[in-house]
Specification:
Chain lengths: 514, 78
């Protein structure tokens, strides 16, 4: 055969595979408001940067009539490309081919690209859109999932792993996204659950729709399984691309440095935090007043909103911000907010991203449900994560820092490198009311007018202890600063900590309170 | 509170016991997303209870000075 004919044959073979599940299946996918696997990869990656591998892989199933079935690419697309010039490895399940079901060769394609990503030390992006295990392939399907989970864990903390849920992701399949760093969901399209509505109905007799059980909003607002919520697939891809700009390719690198930019003048740091500690405000405005170009990329915005986490830049360098949010539930720490912040801190630490913590909280949320839900072990995650983190750590106490909350929020005692406090900071063992009631119990109860005495003693306590100077006198905070000096000091702190060495005793790994 | 109520955000409940210090709206009033409905003094904060969408106020179960328990439905939106 002449070369020309051989090239023609290659083209024909390629064309055949690139149809995916064929015209009808592609039309069905479009009718569900979904792009096809290849359309997604092309929309996500830089123009003309995608190169697909394993196009011609075929399944090996022989039972249940599978031997006569052709499944193009075995229902998954894999390859490499770039996002804003950063190299990435990608897999995208193709729902148009056998419902994107995971058989042995399908799993082998995924694990091949995962191995590749780890070996090349580049980020992995997985697009999930699959009916689940391919039943006809039996235990080979289960083996496939297991191999994926093992690689997710092996790669964790070495390369960034991003999961995009663009269709069903049910049963065992949900655990791969859960093992990765960031999960993206799209309204009305993403569905994630361990046991679906049919199983719930047959076992428990409870009826619920897929959307109410495991739709995008459920995971973005209630479970915390998702980190980013979008209204459309295209918006979702924009979020992923933006995320890529903040994170390094792997754990031996730093994130890409951008041109430094001053914050926008509309965020005036002197006017954001009210002097009255009982008045709430949006702590994101403080972050925007500090960050380059007032740009803040928030993560898990809709879940556990009483703590705010996300990326910004200081002097062009990516920084992970963690801040109590007085606007939501008074900014208390609880089970979910501790869990949310702790995981983010560990992410930043693994990927050489310095941490900047903004503190203003009344303490932990009291309640029987919180205690029963294990606020002790969940709260401990935050202490563990801050203590363990060896990246540069900067803390600014904006206002309230009481009791256990003060210790947990990146205090000097957990080895923050720089602790600054604003003049209105109140650093004390507890709030003035509670403290006065305990310390002066006798004087208050024995007074002719207990209420008046209580008021007097609360004032006395406030005067003496609700300020930053007691902590400053012990060296627990490094300096008390004016709000407008904060950015300058943070930039300086970053500069002097760029060569930081934090020695820790060698160990296999710690036992964080998972 | 069921998951579905948590998602539709029509019932605004107290996240912790506290005292109502202000009710900013009336039954039947149209409210905008982000508008303050009630101010709840709890956890050393004057917490603003906000509407999450544009709608009208269907029920108000509190007045200034009321003590509310955790989970108490303060406002119902349409």
């Amino acid at each position: 055969m002449p070369l020309k004919s051989k090239i023609e044959e290659l083209k024909k073979r390629k064309e055949e595979v690139l149809q995916g599940g064929g015209e009808q299946a592609n039309a069905k996918q479009a009718a569900m408001g979904k792009l096809t696997a290849r359309e997604r990869v092309i929309a996500l990656l830089d123009e003309d940067s995608f190169h697909e591998y394993d196009l011609f892989v075929e399944h090996e199933a022989r039972d249940f009539g599978m031997d006569s079935k052709v499944l193009h690419g075995d229902g998954v697309v894999i390859g490499t490309g770039t996002v804003y010039g950063a190299p990435v490895a990608v897999f995208a399940q193709d729902f148009t081919v056998a419902g994107g079901s995971l058989g042995m060769m399908h799993a082998r394609k995924i694990t091949k690209i995962m191995d590749y990503a780890l070996r090349m030390r580049i980020p992995l992006i997985g697009i999930n859109d699959s009916g689940g295990a391919r039943i006809q392939e039996g235990v080979n399907s289960l083996a496939g999932y297991g191999e994926i989970f093992w690689r997710n864990t092996l790669s964790s903390g070495i390369i960034p792993q991003i999961s995009v849920i663009l269709g069903p992701c049910a049963g065992g399949a949900v655990y791969s996204p859960a093992l990765t760093d960031f999960v993206f969901v799209v309204d009305k399209i993403s569905k994630m659950f361990i046991t679906g509505p049919e199983v719930i109905k047959s076992v428990l007799g409870e009826e619920i729709s897929q959307e109410d059980l495991g739709g995008a909003r459920v995971h973005a607002e209630i479970t915390g399984n998702a980190h980013f919520f979008a209204e459309s697939e295209i918006e979702c891809f924009e979020q992923i691309k933006k995320l890529i700009t903040y994170i390094p390719w792997n754990n031996s690198r730093k994130a890409r440095r951008f041109e430094p930019k001053e914050p926008k003048p509309e965020y005036n740091i002197d006017n954001i935090v009210p002097n009255d500690p009982k008045q709430p405000y949006d702590v994101r405005d403080v972050i925007k007043a500090l960050a380059d170009d007032s740009d803040f990329f928030e993560i898990q915005e809709l879940w556990a909103a009483n703590i705010v986490i996300g990326f910004g830049r200081l002097n062009g360098e990516t920084v992970g911000f963690v801040a109590n949010q007085p606007l939501v539930m008074a900014g208390v720490l609880d089970v979910d907010s501790s869990d949310k912040a702790a995981r983010f801190i560990r992410y930043c630490d693994a990927f050489n991203i310095p941490l900047c913590t903004l503190v203003d909280l009344p303490g932990y949320l009291p309640g029987i449900d919180q205690e029963y839900a294990g606020v002790i072990r969940h709260g401990a995650k935050l202490l563990y994560a801050y203590s363990e983190a060896s990246v540069p750590k900067m803390t600014v106490i904006l206002r309230k820092a009481y009791g256990g909350g003060y210790i947990a929020m990146s205090s000097r005692h957990l080895r923050s490198d720089f602790v600054f406090a604003w003049p209105g900071a109140e650093i004390a063992v507890m709030g003035p009311e509670g403290a006065a009631n305990i310390i002066f119990r006798k004087e208050i109860t024995e007074a002719a007018n207990p209420d008046e005495m209580r008021r007097k003693k609360v004032e006395e306590y406030k005067e003496k202890f609700a300020n930053p100077y007691v902590a400053a006198s012990k060296g627990y905070i490094d300096t008390v600063i004016e709000p407008k000096e904060t950015r300058k000091l943070l930039l300086h702190a970053l500069e002097v900590s760029s060569t930081k060495i934090a020695d820790r005793p060698a160990k296999k790994h710690g036992i964080p309170p998972f | 509170m069921s998951v579905l109520n948590r998602l539709d955000k029509k019932q605004l409940t107290a996240f912790i016991p506290g005292t109502i210090i202000d009710v900013k709206v009336k039954v039947g009033q149209q409210v905008k997303q982000g508008e303050t409905l009630v101010i709840l003094d709890a956890m050393k904060m004057h917490n603003r209870i906000l509407s999450q969408f544009n709608t009208t106020v269907k029920e108000i179960n509190v007045k200034s000075g009321d003590r509310v328990h955790k989970g108490f439905v303060m406002v119902v939106l349409d």
